[in-house]
Amino acid sequence: METFLTLTAQDTDAIWLSIKVACGATLIATPLGFATAHFLVFSRMPGKSLIEGLINLPLVLPPVVVGYLLLLVFGQAGYLGPLLRSVDIRVIFTLTGAVLASAVVGFPLMVRAIRIGMEEIDGNCLMAARTLGAGWWDTLATITLPLSARAVLAGMTLMFARSLGEFGATIILAGNIPGVTQTIPLAIYEYTNTPGGDRMALNLCLVSIVLSFAILLVSEAIGRNLKRR
Amino acid sequence: MELEVDIEKRLGSFRCTAAFTLHLPRCGVFGPSGSGKSTLMNLLAGLLVPDRGRIRLAGHTLYDGEAGINLPPEQRRIGVVFQHARLFPHMNVRRNLLYGWRRTDAGDRRIDPEALIEVLNLGHLLHRGVNRLSGGERQRVALGRTVLACPRLILMDEPLTGLDEELKYQIIPYLQRALDDFAIPLLFISHSLREMRLMTDEVLVFRDGAVQAQLATESLARSDMATAGGGYTNMLHLGPPRPVGDLWRYPWGEVELVLTEGGRNGDNFVELEARDIILFKGCPAAISARNLLACKVVGLFGVSNRVGVELDCGGNRLVAQIVPESVREMGITAGVEVVAAIKASSFRRIV
CB contact, 8 Å: A188 with chain B? Predict the structure, then answer.
C-alpha cells in the first residue's frame, strides 16, 4: 500500500514532459489549423479535396505509420535531414520530435473542429464587414476569429488531449528516453513491461485520467464564458 | 453625385450587362426577382468582379477592366444595406453601429453618431445583443451602421423585404430622414413599385440582366395604369390629424382632407387609388363623399381605355383615372376647373 500514489522522480519527469509536449503541439498547431480550416471553408481553389484528404490522412493511418513517415522526412538520412542539420535542429530522439509527432497526429482533429465552427459563419457578414471599410485581415481578426473562437477552443482541447495520449508516432520518432522524450503513455508502457510495475503503471493511469478530466473542465468553462458574450 | 456604369458579368448561363449614368440623389433599380438587381449591387460594391467595363462614382474610378483598376470593397466607400440585416452576431448594437465609423478616416466622418442614433430611435437599444432585436430594429441598426461609415453612395438591396407589412412602412420615415439629414445619395433596389415611389425619383428598369429603361419614378407609376388590374395610386404626404366628430382632418398642403382613420402625430403617408376619385363640373347639391376639392386640370395622359387626369389641388398634385368617354362628355382639357369628390374611407394608410 505504501507505493500507492507515490510518484518517482521519473514519473514526475514524464508528467511534466507530457504537459510540455501537449502545450507545444497545441501552440504550434493552432495557427496552422486555423489557416487550414479557413482555406478549406472559404477558398474556391480547385484541388481542394486533394489537400483535404492529405490533411485527414493521419486520422486514418496507424500512428506508427505516421511516425515512420516522419522519420523518413526528418531523420538524419531523411529528405529534410541536411537542411535541419544546417540550422542545427535535431528532431529524432528529442523533445522537438515528440512535439512534432503529436502535432501531426492531432492536426486533422483540430482542423475538423475549427472547420465545423467556421462553416456556421454567415459569409454575408464577412461581405458586410468589407463594405464597411474593413480590409481582409481586419475582417479576419474582428469577424471570422471571434465567431470561430469556440471552435478553435474545441480544436485546441482535442489537440491537447490527443497529445497527452500520443504513443505510436512518438515512440518511433522520439523514442522512449526517460527525462527526454518519455511521456506518460510511454512510461506506462515501460512499467507494464517491467515485472512488478503494475502498481506504478496504475498510478500514472490515475494521473492521466485526472489531467484529461481537468482539461475537459477548463475547456467547458472557457467555452461557456465565450458563449455568454 | 454621378454614377457611370458600363459593365458586363457572366455567372453561369446568366449574363448581366449594365450601362447607365445616374445623376439624381435618389435612384432606384426596379425589376422582378432574378432580373440581376442583386448581381448589379454586388458588382457596384466590389463584392463581385465584372468581366469587363468601367464603374465611376463622383469622378473616382472604382473599376476599369482595361486599365486594371479594381478597388476592393473596403476602399470604394459604397455602403450597402442588405436584404437581411447581416448584423455581426458577436457584437452589441453599439459596436455594430460603430464598426464602419471606426474604420472611416477622421476627415470623412461627417456624421455624428449621437445624432443618427437619435434619428433612428436606437438610443434605448445600444447595449442589447443583436439577437434580441425585432426585425424592424435589426434593419434600423443595419441602416445606421451603413450610414455611419459615411459612404459616398448607399445601396439598399430590398431592405424592406422580409419585414412585416406593418413594420415595413414604419421604417420608411427613418430611411428618408437619415438620407435627407445626412445628404447621402441612394441607389434603392426593389421589386415593389410602392417602395420605389416612396424612396426614389428616378428608376432603372431591370429585366433579364439588362437595363430596359431609365425613367422618372412617376412615369413608371403612370405606365402601370395600362396593365390589366393595374392602376395609378396617388401617394399623399399628410400632416398630423385632428379629430372632428368621429372623423379625422389632415392638413394636405393648403387644403384639408377628411379621413376615417386616425394617424401619427407627425408625417403620414396615405394611398388613394386614382379610380376612387369622381370628377364633377359645378358642385353637386348633396353628396355622401366627405371630400370635395376644387381642382384645375393640369394635363391628361392616356393609356388604352383609361385616362389619367392630372389635377392641381391648391398646389398639390392628384391624379384621377376616368374613361375617355367621360373626358369627351365633360370636355376635360388642361385649364378646366373641376371638383374632385373622394370618400373619407377611400384613403389607405401606409405609414
Answer: no
